[in-house]
Specification:
Layout: E1 14-18, H1 24-36, E2 41-42, E3 45-46, H2 47-68, E4 82-87, H3 94-109, E5 113-118, E6 129-133, E7 140-144, H4 164-173, H5 183-199, H6 203-218, E8 223-226, H7 227-230, H8 234-245, H9 247-264, E9 279-280, E10 283-292, E11 298-305, E12 308-313, E13 316-321, H10 323-327, H11 329-341, E14 344-348, H12 350-361, E15 364-367, H13 369-386, E16 394-399, H14 411-426, H15 428-435, H16 440-458, H17 462-482, H18 484-507, H19 519-525
Parallel strand pairs: 4-5, 4-15, 5-8, 15-16
Antiparallel strand pairs: 1-16, 2-3, 6-7, 9-10, 10-11, 10-14, 11-12, 12-13
Helix pairs in contact: 2-8, 4-5, 5-6, 8-11, 9-13, 12-13, 14-15, 14-18, 16-17
């Protein structure tokens, strides 16, 4: 496994790309060579044959869907170089949005096609419209949650039943957007949301169209492709058949590689970074989702029944695959198509999703930090399961901050002030003389304390020592009370510093909607050199 994981870039308004941008054309060329030389079989079909058809079909789907979003696509692109990235439908922050810009930049540089995968088979990404409020009162972030979602239901199934929620979002957000530099892009994005909601009730469509309309104005030419659409291709079914046929091997490899990852990176808990696949007698959980149209997702479980393999949705057997169907591509594909005809969805979970995209659909897939970390595991699974060294993936993110001035305080200031307040409270006798040098009561208390300690040192009787010790504590309490105004002032300073640090954290936040950042700031963060 890799010697390290990916981390967010440090600093304000910086980008992170790995491998380096200058190396990516070479990475793409090597990936194409590696994929062209792949000799493994999937679902009874040579990988190269399945992948060639998958790429052509995926581009056709992407062209049709992109046009449905109101974006002009001149003609279906040739199946040449395809660069892609993906994310769950949501309101993206700049660290996510950079992937769209990088894909477009690299596709243009290589004369290929850029594709953004809408991961609508997942639950929604962030739908909060987060706005930093730094004006009157303490700094805070306003979380506007006006777009309703169904818990545990894939985005592809979710509908925006009442488009008035978009009007509510607009009414609540626009008054909070006071900066002239951020207000116009936000207004345009929100107007796009409203327009999209008038055209369709599909939550995925509404979010994709609003974002893609903004991207079109930026000159981004990427195609959009819902991942759910690719799960309807035979190439996906072939991959699912291979995993189902070799479920025992796949589950064993999957769990072993997760265990290796946890050990290598000292990750605690069986849920991190992903759950192990459950193995229960003749039942094997697979990293595939299954649900009925409109319903909640459940993990697909297979059960061996003699020479047959049963696909379980909960306790229900929804399909039984014979050994012949598992080894004969045409019959196996037909059996899985019957699930679609019955309104039963079969979709992939995280690692299988990236296996499919990286091995069958694209020449380079660009992850964010999270995906880049878990695909360390994917690489090992592909090597073990297919005996194939997988193509390299990219990782990109950005840390962009709104143009707010920072207050001149640091965490060290807070630590120092807390230490000072602690000394005033617990060691008042050491500070009282300097803080109150001309106060007669303080001078007398200090003299009395010194005399009491002297007597305590010379006392032989334990009871007397104990009495004098208590006397010292009483004097300390009196001295502490004398310093009470100083302690109160210091605690007030601590509160002010803490409030200033909270302000700085909110001002430097990186996860606000991309549309509230000044366009010139984002263009600088997303600069990819002379060609951009």
């Amino acid at each position: 496994m890799r010697p390290s994981t990916y981390h967010l870039p440090q600093g304000r308004n910086v980008q992170f790309i790995d491998p380096q941008l200058s190396a990516l054309p070479g990475v793409v060329a090597e990936n194409k060579r590696r994929l062209a030389s792949a000799a493994f079989i999937v679902g009874g079909v040579p990988h190269r044959e399945a992948a060639a058809l998958a790429r052509a079909q995926a581009l056709e789907l992407a062209v049709a869907y992109t046009r449905s979003l109101g974006v002009e696509v001149d003609s279906p692109p040739a199946v040449g170089t395809i660069i892609a990235a993906g994310h769950q439908p949501g309101i993206n922050h700049p660290g996510v949005w950079i992937k769209h810009h990088l894909v477009d930049h690299l596709a243009r540089q290589l004369g290929g096609c850029g594709v953004h995968i809408i991961l609508d088979t997942d639950t929604p990404g962030s739908l909060d419209f987060q706005i930093p409020c730094l004006g009157n009162g303490p700094a805070h972030v306003k979380h506007l949650r006006c777009i309703p979602v169904q818990t545990g239901v894939a985005v592809e199934e979710q509908q925006l039943d009442d488009p008035r929620c978009i009007d509510e979002l607009i009414e609540q957000s626009l008054p909070l957007l006071q900066l002239e530099t951020s207000h116009p892009p936000a207004s345009a994005y929100l107007a796009n949301l409203r327009a999209a909601a008038e055209e369709s009730t599909s939550l995925s469509y509404v979010l994709a169209r609003a974002r893609r309309t903004v991207e079109a104005a930026w000159g981004i030419a990427n195609l959009e492709l819902p991942y759910s659409a690719t799960c309807g291709l035979d190439s996906f079914r072939l991959l699912a058949l291979e995993i189902i046929r070799r479920a025992d091997d796949f589950a064993r490899i999957y769990n072993a590689r997760l265990a290796d990852y946890r050990k290598a990176y000292k990750v605690r808990g069986k849920a991190n970074p992903l759950h192990d696949l459950a193995l229960d007698g003749d039942r094997i959980e697979l990293p595939l989702w299954m649900w009925r149209a409109g319903g909640e997702r459940r993990s697909l479980v297979v059960r061996r029944n003699g020479s047959a393999t049963e696909l379980l949705f909960g306790r229900e057997v929804v399909q039984t695959l014979s050994q012949h169907q598992l080894t004969n591509p045409s019959d196996g594909l037909e059996a899985l198509r019957q699930l679609d005809a019955a309104g039963i969805r079969m979709r992939s979970k995280a690692l299988v999703t990236t296996i499919y995209m990286r091995l069958f659909l694209f020449d380079l897939f660009i992850h964010g930090i999270g995906g880049g970390n878990y695909d360390i595991i994917t690489n090992e699974i592909v090597r073990d399961f297919f005996g194939f060294d997988p193509p390299t993936y990219g990782v990109a993110t950005a840390s962009a901050s709104m143009p707010f001035e920072q207050k001149n305080v640091s965490r060290q200031d807070l630590i120092k002030m807390r230490e000072q307040a602690g000394r005033m409270h617990h060691s008042s006798h050491n500070l009282a003389g300097n803080l109150l040098p001309h106060d007669p009561e303080t001078v007398a208390l200090l003299a009395q304390r010194k005399e009491t300690l002297h007597k305590q040192e010379r006392a032989v009787d334990k009871a007397e020592k104990k009495r004098l010790f208590k006397c010292t504590r009483v004097i300390d309490a009196q001295l502490r009370e004398k310093l009470r105004p100083f302690i109160a002032d210091k605690e007030k300073e601590i509160g002010e510093v803490r409030e200033a640090l909270d302000y700085n954290a909110i001002a430097a936040g990186r996860e606000y909607p991309f549309c509230i950042y000044p366009e010139e700031l984002l263009r600088k963060v997303y600069s990819f050199g002379p060609e951009s």
